[in-house]
Design goal:
The protein is an alpha/beta fold. The protein is built from six helices and five strands; from the N terminus they run αβαβαβαββαα. Helix 3 crosses helix 5 and helix 5 packs antiparallel against helix 6. Belongs to the phosducin family.
Length: 178
C-alpha cells in the first residue's frame, strides 16, 4: 500500500517525463555538430528557411577558439531550434588565415546574415555565452529555444545583467576584505 505523498510523487514524475518527451520531439538540434567541407552545402546552405545556422570556423591550436566553442556549446544546448555547426576554417575556406579565427558565420535562408571575426564583438577573452548570445541576436532573432516569442533576448539580457552584478559584488567584497 502506498501513502498519498508517494502517489502524488509518481504522478508528478509521470507528468514531467511526458513534458521531457514532448520537448525532445520538438528539439531539432541541441549540440555543436562537427561538419566537413563536403557537408557544408547540405548542412548549412540547404538548411530549411525557418532554421538559423551558426557556423563556427576554428583551429584546434588556437586558445580563443576553445573559449568560443565552450560558449557555443552552452548556447546550442539552450537554443536547440538553432543549428550550430563547427568546421575547421581551412576545410571551409581554403587558405583562410589563422589570424581570422575564431570566426562565426550566421546563415538563414541560404544567405550569410552575419559575420563575426575574432572575439571582440563577444567581449574579448572574457566572452560568456550571454555576451555571444547578445551579439548574435543584435539585429536578427538568431537564437530559438522552441518556445516562441521574444522572451529569448529578454532572458539573455537578464542573465547577462545578473552575471555583471554578481561580478561587481564579488569585486566589492574582495576590496572590503583588503
Amino acid at each position: 500500500r502506498m501513502g498519498g505523498n508517494r502517489v502524488i510523487s509518481i504522478e508528478i514524475w509521470r507528468m514531467r517525463l511526458a513534458e521531457l518527451k514532448e520537448a525532445a520531439k520538438t528539439a531539432r538540434f541541441g549540440t555543436v555538430q562537427p561538419i566537413t567541407g563536403s557537408d557544408f552545402v547540405r548542412e548549412v546552405s540547404q538548411a530549411p528557411p525557418d532554421v538559423w545556422v551558426v557556423v563556427f570556423l576554428y583551429k584546434d591550436a588556437i586558445p580563443e577558439c576553445g573559449l568560443l566553442e565552450t560558449c557555443l556549446e552552452e548556447l546550442a544546448t539552450k537554443y536547440a531550434e538553432t543549428k550550430f555547426v563547427k568546421i575547421i576554417s581551412t576545410d571551409c575556406i581554403p587558405n583562410y588565415p589563422d589570424r581570422n579565427v575564431p570566426t562565426i558565420l550566421v546563415y538563414n535562408n541560404s544567405a550569410v546574415k552575419g559575420t563575426y571575426v575574432g572575439l571582440q564583438k563577444f567581449g574579448g577573452k572574457k566572452c560568456t555565452p550571454e555576451s555571444v548570445a547578445l551579439a548574435l541576436c543584435d539585429s536578427d532573432p538568431v537564437l530559438n529555444d522552441g518556445q516562441g516569442g521574444n522572451n529569448v533576448m529578454e532572458g539573455v539580457r537578464r542573465k547577462f545583467i545578473e552575471k555583471v552584478v554578481s561580478q561587481l559584488e564579488t569585486r566589492e567584497d574582495e576590496d572590503d576584505s583588503d
